[in-house]
Design the sequence.
C-alpha cells in the first residue's frame, strides 16, 4: 500500500482488517519501524487520532514528530500563483516537500471549511500532500473522508461477529455544523462488506450520491431502526445546502426507547460524542464506543505496518526523490 | 503501588525516597518501560513537571505522549448528566477511558479553579481519572495536592542529612491567587518524617486543618524562623476566604536578614519563584532550589518504576478492562 | 565542540561539513545518543528547525523534549534584579539551570525583538543559556545568528561543487520586518570559504560591518548578479535604522530575467519563502531550496554528534554541575 487516504488505496480490505485484529492480540510484534520517523501534521485538533496513531507508531518502534500547523510552525499558503504579501509566510509546495524529507511516513489531518463544497470535495490540501510528498501519506481525516476511522469501524463490526448484519447509519442533532467525512467514509467501507446498510436522516441531509448509492435511504428513523443489528449515529451538516444546519430536531437523539426497536443492536459512534444530543447517557453507557475508539490503535498500526513495508521495498526511489527541485 | 495521587497511595514512603535517591546515582538502570507509553494530559501549563517526568520516563525506556487538553485535543465536559449543547464536544467519561486505553500509564495535571472550595476539594477531575482509567494514574498536581513535588521535597531534605530538623513552611507574598496544593501536600509528607514542623503565615491564611493538624502554627514569621534548619517558602491564597488574597505584605518576603535568624537554614521552594516577592535574589542564589527542582526527575522515575511494576503484575486484569462498555 | 552558537564554536569547519555530508549518506550510523535527551526550547515558531533537528536526534538514537516557552511552560522573566510582580512567574536564571538539568543537550531558539539594537545584539537570552546551562547549548537561531542554517548552506554549496564560486547575497522585499540573523550568519560562514562574496541591497540595508567586512557591497542588483554561480536571496530589516522597513521595492524580487544575468546560478533561500515577493514561482521551482532545507537534518546531526562526543568526554564535570546553588 503506497498511501492510505481512502478505501481505494487498499488492495485487500479483508486482509487489512485481519491485520488490525492480529495487532490487537499481538501489539508488540514487529520492529519494522525502528529508526523510522512518523511525522504528524494537524490542521485542526485531535485527541483519539493523535494519541492512537502515536501509540501505534511506538508499538512498531517508530519515533514520532507531531506538529500543530500554524501554532508550532508557520501559517501555510495553499493557493498557487499568489503574491505572498499577507499573513502566511510559508507555501504548501515547500512545506510538504520539506516535511516529507524529514520523515519516513507523513500523516496529515485536514478539515472541511464547510463554506465551499467544491473546494472541500476537491481535497486541495490532501491532494498537495499526495502530489508533493517524497514518502507515503496517511490521512488522519481529510475534508471529506476519514479512512482510519472507517477501518476501525469495520474491525469493530467484525468483532461483533454478526452474519449479514443490518447496519443503520443515523443522523443525530448537534449544535455545530460538522463535516460529512465520517459518514461518507463509513458508507464507502461498510457497503463493501456483507452488511445491509440503511441511512436515515431528516430530508435535506442526503449525502453525496457517490457514497450513498448502495444504501437504502429511509427518512423515518423509527422505521429504519427496526431490526437493526448495529446503530451508527453521527451528525453531519447538509451536503446540498452545503455546510448548513437544517435541523436541530431532538427527536432524532438516539434513546433507549429507540434502541428497543432494534434487534438488540450495538450502538457505535466515532467520538467525541455530545451526550444527550447524539444519544442519551443510557445509550452511550451501554454502547461499544470505548472498544471502538480503542480499536483506533490497531487500525493505525495495521496501516503504518503496510506503509512501512511499502517504503522498505521502495527505498531507492525515495532516495532519488530527495533531489526534487534539482 | 497501583496509583500515585497522594501519600495515601504509598505503602512505604521511606523505600520510595530511597528509590529516588538510587535513581539519582543510577539513572539508566531499568528497562522496565521499553515499549510502554506514558500519556501526560495537561489541563494547565507546566515546565518542571512536564520535562522532568518525560525525562524520567525516557530513563526507564518509555515512550511519551504529551497532550495539552483543550489545545491539542477537544474542550472536555466534566459534569455528568448534562445536555452537551455548548462549547465542549467531549465528555470526560469517554476521554479518560479512551486516553487510558492508548497508554500504559496515564499522568494528569489538573488545577484549582479557586472559585468554589467544595468543588476544588472534591478533586472532581482527578477522581474521574481514577475511576475511569484502565491503567495506573499518576498525579502531576491536582486541585489540592502535588505529591510528586512533595516526594521530591522529602528527598531533598533527606540529602541535607539533618537529624530531627526544624522545618518552617512560610507563606510569602505573590501578586496572583495561588492554589493550596503545594503547602497541603508538603505538610502531608513532612509531618510523616522526624521533622519538627512549624507553619507561619498572616492570619486568615490557615490551611485546611486535615493538613496542618500535626504542625505548630506561628503567626510571627521572625519567631517561627528562629533556629530553623529548613525554610520552605510558598504563596497560597486563603482557604477560609476561599481563593482570596488577604495580604500582599512584602515584610513576609524572605530576606537575608530573616535567614540570619535561622540555624543556617537551607531555603527551599517548588518553583517557579517570583524573585524579590517570595524571596530576595540573595536568598534564592544561596538556596537549594536548583538541586530540589533537579530531583523532580528522580522522584518521578521512582514513581513510574513502581507503577510499571504494578502494571506488569496486573496485566491480565488490564487486558479485560479494555472491553468496558461491553 | 562544547557548544554550537556561532562559527566561533567550531574548531574545524571543513570537518563539520564533511561530517554532515557523511550523515546524508549514512543516516543511521552512530548510537551515541541512546538514552540521551535533547531538550528543545522555542521562544518563537519553527517548522524546519523543529522537525529537522528532532529527526537528526532520532537518527542518533536520542529522545526529544520540545517545549514552546510561554505556551507549554510559563512566561519567563529575563531581566536580573527585578521585583517579579507582573505577568512572568518564572525567572530565566532558574529556568535554564533546571531545563538543562533535565536534558543531556539543550537547544534554544530565541528571536530579535527588532526594537532595540543593543539588546538584540547582546544576545541576552542566548547568553543566559550559555552561562547557566549545565549541558552543551545548541542555537536553533538566535537574535543575530543562525549557525545551523549556515552550516546547511555551506554543505549545500559544497554539493554544487564549484571552484571559487561567485556567491551573491541579495536582499529581497518582504511585507514584515525580519531579523538579520540569517544574512549575518551566512556571511560569517561563506567568507571563510573560497567563495567570492558580493552583497547587494538598497541603500540603508547595510549589515553590521563585523559580518560584511570581507564582502564586496554592490547597490546595483543587476550588476551584482552578473556571473554569479550562487544567488542567495533573503529579506532583512535595516540595521542602521534598526528594525525598520526602508524599502518594499518589488524590482528587487528575483525573477527569471534576473537569473539570466548569472552564470546559470543556483538559487538558495533558507525558507519559509514568500513566493512572488522574494522570488517568482519560476525561480523557486527551478531552485535548490528543497535540497537545501533537506540538508538541515544532516547539519543538525553532525552538530549533535559533536556535542554528544563532547558531553561524553566531560560527563564528570557535568555531574558536579548538578549541585549549583549548593
Sequence:
Amino acid at each position: 500500500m503506497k498511501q492510505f487516504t481512502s478505501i481505494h488505496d487498499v488492495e485487500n480490505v479483508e486482509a487489512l482488517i485481519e491485520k488490525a485484529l492480529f495487532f490487537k492480540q499481538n501489539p508488540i510484534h514487529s520492529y519494522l519501524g525502528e529508526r523510522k520517523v512518523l511525522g504528524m501534521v494537524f490542521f485542526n485538533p485531535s485527541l483519539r487520532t493523535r494519541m492512537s496513531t502515536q501509540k501505534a507508531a511506538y508499538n512498531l518502534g517508530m519515533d514520532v514528530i507531531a506538529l500543530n500547523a500554524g501554532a508550532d510552525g508557520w501559517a501555510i499558503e495553499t493557493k498557487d500563483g499568489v503574491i505572498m504579501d499577507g499573513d502566511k509566510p510559508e507555501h504548501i509546495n515547500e512545506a510538504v516537500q520539506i516535511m516529507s524529507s524529514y520523515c519516513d511516513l507523513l500523516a496529515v489531518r485536514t478539515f472541511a471549511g464547510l463554506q465551499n463544497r467544491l473546494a472541500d470535495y476537491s481535497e486541495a490540501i490532501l491532494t498537495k500532500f499526495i502530489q508533493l510528498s517524497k514518502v507515503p501519506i496517511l490521512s488522519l481525516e481529510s475534508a471529506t473522508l476519514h479512512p482510519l476511522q472507517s477501518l476501525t469501524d469495520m474491525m469493530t463490526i467484525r468483532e461483533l461477529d454478526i452474519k449479514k448484519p443490518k447496519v443503520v447509519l443515523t443522523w443525530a442533532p448537534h449544535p455545530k455544523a460538522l463535516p460529512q467525512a465520517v459518514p461518507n467514509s463509513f458508507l464507502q467501507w461498510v457497503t463493501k462488506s456483507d452488511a445491509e446498510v440503511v441511512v436515515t436522516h431528516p430530508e435535506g441531509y442526503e449525502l453525496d450520491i457517490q457514497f450513498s448509492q448502495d444504501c437504502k435511504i429511509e427518512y423515518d428513523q423509527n422505521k429504519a431502526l427496526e431490526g437493526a443489528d448495529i446503530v451508527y449515529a453521527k451528525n453531519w451538516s447538509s451536503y446540498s445546502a452545503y455546510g448548513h444546519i437544517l435541523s436541530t430536531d431532538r427527536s432524532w437523539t438516539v434513546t433507549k426507547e429507540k434502541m428497543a426497536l432494534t434487534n438488540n443492536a450495538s450502538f457505535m459512534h466515532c467520538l467525541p460524542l455530545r451526550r444527550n444530543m447524539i444519544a442519551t447517557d443510557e445509550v452511550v453507557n451501554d454502547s461499544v464506543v470505548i472498544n471502538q475508539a480503542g480499536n483506533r490503535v490497531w487500525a493505525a498500526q495495521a496501516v503504518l505496518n503496510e506503509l512501512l513495508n511499502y517504503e522498505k521495498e521502495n527505498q531507492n526511489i525515495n532516495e532519488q526523490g530527495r533531489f526534487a527541485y534539482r
About this structure: Chain B has two domains: 7-145+296-321, 147-293. Chain B touches chain A through 35 residues (CB under 8 Å).
